[in-house]
Every structure is written in C-alpha cells, then in structure tokens.
Specification:
The chain has 147 residues and is α+β, with helices and mostly antiparallel strands. It is built from four helices and six strands, in the order E-E-E-E-E-E-H-H-H-H.
C-alpha cells in the first residue's frame, strides 16, 4: 500500500501512504507544510490502484496528527468514531418522561386514570347524576327534565 494515492469520498486527492501500523494507514498531506494523519483500514477500499476513503477531507483533517515514531492508534480510532464506549439506555422500555417517573413512584398518570373511569374499573369515579339545566328555548325557564 505504500506510496498509493488516497482519494476521499468527496473526490479530493488527499495524499500518499507513507506507513501502515496498528490497523491504520498513515498518509502524508500538504505541499509545503506536510502533515501526517492516520486513517483506519475500515474506511479505505482499493479501487483501480487508488485507495478510496469513505470519509471526507474534513474528517481526516480533524483527526489527530501523527508522528511515525510515537502515536496513539486508540485516539485515532476514537476520532473516527470507532472503539468508543457507548451509553447504556437507563429506561429500556422507552424514553424517560414524567409518566414513567410517576409510574415508578406508584402514581397513576392522567391517561391511566381516564381509562379506568371509562372502563368502569375505578369505584371512586362513578358518574354523578346532575339535574339538567333549564331549557334555553323556553323563556319561562321550565326545566328540561319535566314531562
């Protein structure tokens, strides 16, 4: 792979391979001020004698510069989003919300209470019978419940 040209996915001729180490390829970029960056092999594919990177020039530029003698492959891989720890979802059944917090504390949410009333499961929520208001169409104010 040494001395092969690396082209990024946005068709930018990025540089040439100068070394391979720790499952990464080190490329040298720049014309006057040369810098070295490492790209993990997972992001490189050989096509017609040219190494195509599946990342943009900006991603490679934002990765740590490397020295051929001393460099940290773990830091390089982490800058590309590889080998980084992931966060465990604290609520595997869904998103944290006021409703899930209330359920955890034993408080019924509004939706659960409405369902219990509608389905008749809540004995304290019996519908009350109220006297209907006066008939608005009758100017005498006769109650609508009278026959």
């Amino acid at each position: 792979m040494e001395h092969q040209t690396v082209v990024t996915n946005d068709d930018h001729n990025f540089g040439a391979v100068v070394a391979e180490r720790d499952d990464c390829v080190v490329i040298e970029t720049g014309h006057i001020f040369k810098t070295k960056h490492a790209i993990p092999r997972e992001f490189l594919h050989e096509v017609d004698g040219v190494l195509r990177a599946t990342v943009t020039k900006e991603v490679v530029d934002n990765s740590p510069k490397v020295d051929l003698e001393h460099w940290d492959a773990a830091a390089v891989r982490a800058s590309y989003g590889l080998d980084v720890p992931f966060a465990v979802d604290q609520d595997p059944n869904g998103l944290e919300s006021a409703e899930t917090d209330a359920e955890r504390l034993g408080v019924k949410s509004d939706t659960v209470e409405r369902l219990e009333v509608l389905e008749g499961h809540d004995p304290n929520a019996l519908p009350s019978v109220r006297e209907r208001s006066a008939n608005a169409a009758d100017p005498g104010g006769v109650s609508a419940n009278l026959d």
